[in-house]
Write a structure and sequence with these properties.
It is built from four helices and three strands, in the order H-E-H-H-H-E-E.
């Protein structure tokens, strides 16, 4: 059994898309994407928030290795992580929007709770 969805991409493309979407999620607070991408992006974002809550050097290095934008990584460590310090998971929410007009793909909004 695969631990993730392949999303119709090879591994390098999938990792780059997820990293970009996680970065955009932390920058803007919400993103609109397909339902499957939202689920995978949410999983990665939850891991990054868990690292930000720990706040030790190893966790900060993992965050800076994963998130492209240094300003967004600092925002995650200084603002977003402490905001969820009392919460035991469930940092993101997926709201389904319905099908996209062009290709009928299920759209969703991924946002921070």
């Amino acid at each position: 059994m695969v631990g993730h969805k392949k999303l119709g991409m090879d591994s390098a493309h999938r990792k780059a898309v997820l990293r970009n979407q996680v970065t955009d999620l932390f920058r803007d607070g919400r993103i609109q994407t397909t339902k499957d991408k939202a689920k995978e992006t949410g999983r990665a974002a939850e891991k990054m928030i868990t690292f930000a809550k720990k706040g030790d050097l190893a966790a900060k290095r993992k965050i800076f290795a994963y998130i492209y934008d240094e300003d967004v990584a600092n925002k995650l460590i200084e603002e977003i992580g402490p905001k969820y310090s009392d919460r035991q998971g469930g940092y993101t929410r997926i709201l389904k929007l319905g099908p996209r007009v062009g290709d009928n793909a299920e759209l969703a909004i991924l946002e921070l709770v």
